[in-house]
Amino acid sequence: MLVRPLANGVVVGLDVGGTATNATVVDESGRFLVDRLVETPSCVLDGPAAALDALARSVDMVLELTGTDLGAVRAVGLDTPGPSSADGVLSAKGATNFALPQWYGFDIRSALEMRLGLPVVYNNDGNAAALYAHVAHFGADAPHRSSISAIVGTGLGGGVIESGQVVKGATGMAGELGHVHIPMHGLLADDQPLPACNCGFAGDAESVASLTGIMKNLLPYWLTRHPDHPLASVPIKDAAKQVRGLGERGDPLARGIFEQQAMALGRLFTIAANFTDPNAYFVGGGVVEAAHDFRDWFLDRVRAHTQLREEQAKATTFALVPDLDMAGARGAALAALGLVAT
């Protein structure tokens, strides 16, 4: 599809989740015209046709909100949870939040491009958030810097940015940091079972550093250490969601769980330090949405568990992903902005 010059135009970013789509608009200077969440139902559980209609409504809504004419839109950035190809073809085995068989192997990028009549640039949601964190942190120096982002949510997403560009790999699965195997010696207690991941691996980063890891692996073990804990009487799925709030209040069980998660991320970043040697490490997800004291404590613990050489420690930084609830849509928009600005 022909890409029109960006002059006096804008780019729309769409971050698609299981229940909602967040939309944003960025102009040619890189200025975001939206400073809050602009959410509409994603309708992904109703199948591709309903979801594409919903995405079109998201575009219309954010343009109306910003007083922007559709004719000014030069491209759309789209992100979804993976797994998917680099070009936006969802996994043939199903992707996160895209459970209906109609989604298996579905080319969501091309379908949205046809629906809107505009160029669409695709990234998975972890890569989009990683790109936004990178650009927000480095600003004008972003094209000359590299970074690694770990996004701790239901799973563990992430992204690798090199010279300001998302590293996607041959099949679009680069940056799947959650499925990197990490050393477990010293992370687990002597009697703690090897954690299992939903992907089928055992002992990968996501099996520890994720909400699913808390529910399946960490909390059941820690409750054996604290049998009288109030969470012992709560269904495990509900109990797992309460751990962060307890961690904010300094609960010993919760802090023990988050210490293990911080260690897992530190070991993951240690691998990255010896593989890509990035300028920055970013942490996002639920910990960013927590109280300031807790999220600062967590980031400090991740830093403490990341083993860097003296030269690396002087040259790199650790930071939280900013504006996390908007990071995906903003990163998706920035990726599309890169297309039309070249």
Automatic annotation (TrEMBL):
<dbReference type="InterPro" id="IPR049874">
    <property type="entry name" value="ROK_cs"/>
</dbReference>
<dbReference type="InterPro" id="IPR043129">
    <property type="entry name" value="ATPase_NBD"/>
</dbReference>
<dbReference type="Pfam" id="PF00480">
    <property type="entry name" value="ROK"/>
</dbReference>
<comment type="similarity">
    <text>Belongs to the ROK (NagC/XylR) family.</text>
</comment>
<dbReference type="InterPro" id="IPR000600">
    <property type="entry name" value="ROK"/>
</dbReference>
<protein>
    <submittedName>
        <fullName>ROK family protein</fullName>
    </submittedName>
</protein>
